[in-house]
Amino acid sequence: MSPRRRRSADPSGSRTRLLADGPSPGGEPEGTLPDSMLIEHGAGGHADEDRLRRDAHVLRDAETAESAQAFEVVPSVDGEALPVRGVGKRASTSPAVTEASAGTPYTFGVVVLTQGKRPEDLDRGFRSLLAQRGVELDVICVGNGWEPVGMPDGVRTLALPENLGIPAGRNEGVPHVRGEFLFFLDDDAWLPDDTTLLRMAQMMRAKPEIGLIQPQVTDPSRDDAPLRWIPRLRKGSPEHSSTVFSVWEGAICLQRRAFDESGGWPAPFWYAHEGIELAWRVWDAGYQVWYRGDIQVAHPVIDPKRHDEYFYMNARNRVWLARRNLPFPISWAYVGSWTLVQCLRWAKKPQQLRAWFTGWRDGWRLDPWSADEEQKKLSGRGLLAMTRHGRPPVV
Fold first, then answer.
1. Nearest residue to 142 (alpha-carbon basis) of 298, 19, 25, 45
2. Helix, strand or coil for residue 25?
3. CA 225 to chain centre
4. What does R_g of the chain's alpha carbons equal in angstroms?
5. Which of 271, 262, 229 lies closest to 248, judged by CA?
6. Could you tell me where the beta strands, DSSP code E, fall in the chain?
7. What are the backbone dihedrals phi and psi of residue 288, each rounded to the nearest 5 degrees, phi first?
8. What angle do CA 172, 244, 8 make, to 5 degrees?
9. Where do the Glycosyltransferase 2-like domain residues begin and end (predicted)?
10. Closest by alpha carbon to 186, among 166, 206, 159?
């Protein structure tokens, strides 16, 4: 299937700059929401390409064959055992570890997007990444309107001259990392288990029809994880695994080919609902999207301070989801159902509804596509696949 848009694997195809660690020439821009929401890039020079070809960090648990111990991690999805293999030196923190022969390496391109506002959290996330066992990592820190400095050994940096928003910023990092799998990690999230990436990669190797996995999100210091972290209408237990049709975007793993064939993150969105479109497009590309309740990533529980911009973006992007992806009359049914939901939910909060309907109107008025995107809606096959798995895209 031809993708809607292709991310160039040529590092010189972007106007972004790859930076060595060093002092930042200026402060940290806050990043305002531009009127057009679209930013184009010109061609870059070959010097950046040379820097990008520096050796990526390769995480190995054993330096010699004599010290290496092969192991097999056997994750399960609601009791279903999956064969997985890797190479390790010490006992895994996961409960099921047995000896096995080493297989093909599990290679990951890892993209961490940040504005540099949470340096301690960012460092914690990198340490948890570099502690992952049985995988080979190519890690890049993308500074969204910020020049990343002080990165640990093995983490390369990419500075974006402007804040492009979250989806577009993540997209910018993808052409600069190599690997069979992609992993996106927010700068305030981390991996509490050292076989997290291995287990997700092994599931997708064993079941290649699975293109995207979102783990369970927890806060180790609390037991009141918000239900919004479970991407299901009927939430159920957070430990229950299932197919899903949206994802919490802070820590997700994809087969790289599924990302490429789906077209990547919806760049114009800036933030809000980009995890819904990515999941829909992965389904449309012929893959499944899974929530893994038996694999955890960590993220602090933060009381979201809702403001007018949040309500505006929530509504505008909801309309854009329909316009970009759904044929008529499904698009109208989708927007209509969510309009009714929001009116009922916020009937006693007119200030929130006022901002929401401003975004709703702009969702119909503004162009939801980037200049370089193929304006292609979901196929009948994709709509049927989601419906067959329990979520027709009308709610």
1. 19
2. coil
3. 20
4. 21
5. 229
6. 17-18, 69-73, 76-77, 80-81, 86-88, 97-98, 106-114, 135-144, 155-160, 181-186, 210-218, 242-243, 251-255, 288-298
7. -105, 155
8. 20
9. 119-213
10. 166
H or E stretch covering 208: none
Residues 28/115, Cβ–Cβ less than 8 Å: yes
Judged by phi (left if over 0) then psi (alpha if -120 to 50, else beta), residue 288 lies in beta
Both tokens of 16, joined, read 């972004």
- Cα 315-258-209 angle, rounded to 5 deg: 110
Q: What CATH number labels 11-59+92-298?
A: 3.90.550.10
Q: Measured between alpha carbons, how far is residue 254 from residues 174, 193, 281, 379 in Å?
A: 12, 19, 12, 21
* Matching residue, tokens 């809000």: 272
Task: Determine the 3-state secondary structure of 262 from DSSP.
Answer: helix
**Number of helices (H) and strands (E), helices first, in the chain?**
10, 14
Predicted confidence (pLDDT) per residue in 254-292, tens digit = 999 999 999 999 999 999 999 999 999 999 999 999 999
Residue 360 pLDDT > 80 = yes
Lowest-confidence pick of 64-68, 139-143, 299-303: 64-68
Q: Report which residue type is found at 153.
A: D
The ranges assigned to domains in the chain are: 11-59+92-298, 308-388
